[in-house]
Amino acid sequence: MSGRRGSIGRLAIPPPDAAWIVEDTVRNPEQPPVHLVSGRRIRLGEDRNADGSVDAELQLGGGSWRPVRLEPLEWSRPLTPSEARRLLAAGRLLRRRCGDDVVALLDLGAIDGRLVRVTERWDGVALRAALWGVPLPLRVAAELVGRVAAIIAAAHDARPPIVHGRLTADAVVLGSDGRLRLRGFDLGGGGAGPADDVYAMGALLYELLAGQPLPPLPIQADACRARVRDLVTAVPFVPPAVIEILVQSLAFEPGDRPAAAAVARMLTEVARKAEGESLSAWIDGELARFEGDGMARAAIAEEPTADEATVDVPAARESTADEATVDEPAARESTADEATVEEPAVDVAEVLEALPVPDLEAPAAVLVEARAPRELVAAPDAWGAEPP
Description:
globular, single chain
């Protein structure tokens, strides 16, 4: 592994291409150690997940081990003991407010100069991986974002409020148990407020209905109008109630956006009236698709000769592509037709006029900041000596 090693008080920032995944620190002491705030020991797996995390086991009292996951912790300054305690306290508060609807933060630590967070291990896929670049059925999209809004609303109701700050399709987990969870809360308070989460909900709803994400920010009110107009034109089955939610959530001024709880209520009502596949059924279908794809790849890998693999690989991938291009659109077209019958046509001009017009002489406001990964370093003597 590249990068220098050292004690927790002398951790160096490794080169940009340095891997932060290490071998099992219990069985293989030659690798850089993992220093945890709690002082507990951890056993790391050898394989990196698709999102850059790694599965591990955290030692609990009595010698038992709990399955966990290690992820990079974005932090722009040295992490002091008091800040570490504050982050963990915020994680416990979030867990009390949201329960199993969030991926819990269990510990913090450092590996070879990189700060990491230890979370409970979840089985499933991120929503981003389940998006195929085509609009989702109205009921699925409304139910999904409504559920996200309800979880965010519970976090906002905490005292002090907990803001996600990084809400995208990557932060939504489709669990193998059929549950929808959120991960990646910015517990350090990176400057985002509740209104930023509401804007992110609107952006997520737009992406699910339009089949493509909103263009990069910053934006102004005229850009909001253009995006909503494009959505109405491209996706005719979007009812007026959903357009109203988008208009309010994507408002230029943060103070003009509704609370997360209001968004949850509005989308729950939209999902109740819409017909078609439910969110739970859609999640089950997507997980089955991923499981089938994994089984197909495993079968391909076990082929004894290169010639046989050359023949079988395209066939397996064509079958998966056919399912995505034939079966999914068919189900979504059916949902669109059903929703079109129930909902009246949208008066686009009237809806777009509802968007507030800001002072265009003022600097453009950045409503949601895209946070890029940063190099991080632990504070000197932050947590003391290496755990026994």
